[in-house]
Amino acid sequence: MRPLVALRRAAPFDAHFPSRSPLFWPLERAARSLGARDDFPSASDLLSVFAAAPPVRFVEAPPARRRRAPVDPQRLYDARVTLERVVPTRANCWHDFMNALVWGTFPRAKRALHARQYRAIAARLAPGARTLPPVRSPELDALALVDEGGIAVLAADPEAVGAALMTRKAGVLEAQIASGAAVAVIFGHAIYESLALGVAPAVAAALVMTRDRSQPDAACDADAALARAIEDESLLRSPRELTRVEVAEAKPTGSSCETSSAGAR
Length: 265
Prior knowledge:
Layout: H1 3-10, H2 28-33, E1 57-60, H3 77-84, E2 86-89, H4 94-105, H5 107-124, H6 138-149, E3 150-155, H7 158-166, H8 172-178, E4 182-186, H9 189-197, E5 205-210, H10 218-231, E6 243-244
Parallel strand pairs: 1-2, 3-5
Antiparallel strand pairs: 3-4, 5-6
């Protein structure tokens, strides 16, 4: 069993997980919506993470079964999210719990991402196939990287900030944030899971986009910007479009208090 999987199963619920890192700020409103509790919320309880009408509902994930019949593309995870608007969710699972909080914070981007993944997977599935293709396409690699380890970097001058990040120098993202040139908003639920469990995130990849200050807060801005980028099929064709960054450098500074997503969405 992989170390993170074992830790994920063994770590008890802790309602105070947001206090473990300032990087949890985008999820604060969604986490508070669940109220005080001593255990993981049920799938039905997770509906409260949405500030507006829920675009999906969370349902208990069925047990994994060995596949004997041909793969039905409409029964795959992304298809269920896209066609049925349900998110299969494992009970007592940090990974799926963080996914629900991300859904509540970035609903537009999450819907766009799973719709695009569904189209991309269905297009590659041969009729009558009993298994999925053994290797993901570059497009699916990029989308998975955004979903699990994506960080939206919002900037008034995205070209300049993107060029700075491409140097891969230590501290460059932190410096861009400190100067006010950029705001970093974590989107990937695997990053949040790692922060909650106290382990280093496996990967973090930045997507630099134009900041829209007319949005009520940076989380809303990131949701809209990510949705536009994901819906644009000329973008995110390969992981090469994303820039690897250090998660710790995404920490907000005192000047970025406006990033709080505590307000209404």
